[in-house]
Design a protein that fits this description.
Shape: elongated
Helix content: 40-55%
Oligomer: single chain
Distance between the termini: 60 Å
Length: 108
């Protein structure tokens, strides 16, 4: 699955906000909620692995946008099941035809 996080581009293109402090002030002005600069930096810099719905609601309310404006999700391509060739190391001991440890009497 391909997830494209577009918050940074949306804020710059639609609202002409280039500094985190400006974004923080804009959010506080529109929603009366102060979001920390560290949290905004993490959201702007990289795609979050998880995000609270309340945070998404704050962003969408402050920026007057929808979730589709901030993130795009594309279905991933399914990988076909690859059959691996058996090698000596990946073959179970019972199928190798050999004991786990050699018999010392064979080497005498």
């Amino acid at each position: 699955m391909a997830i494209h996080w577009k918050l940074k581009h949306y804020v710059r293109n639609k609202h002409n906000l280039y500094r985190l402090k400006d974004l923080q002030e804009h959010i506080a002005e529109k929603t009366s909620i102060v979001v920390s600069l560290q949290h905004l930096s993490d959201l702007i810099r990289t795609c979050p692995k998880s995000i609270r719905l309340q945070t998404m609601e704050i962003l969408c309310s402050a920026l007057n946008c929808t979730l589709n404006d901030l993130v795009t999700i594309e279905p991933g391509k399914r990988k076909e099941k690859v059959t691996r060739k058996l090698s000596y190391q990946s073959t179970p001991l019972t199928k190798r035809g050999l004991e786990a440890f050699p018999n010392p009497s064979d080497y005498a």
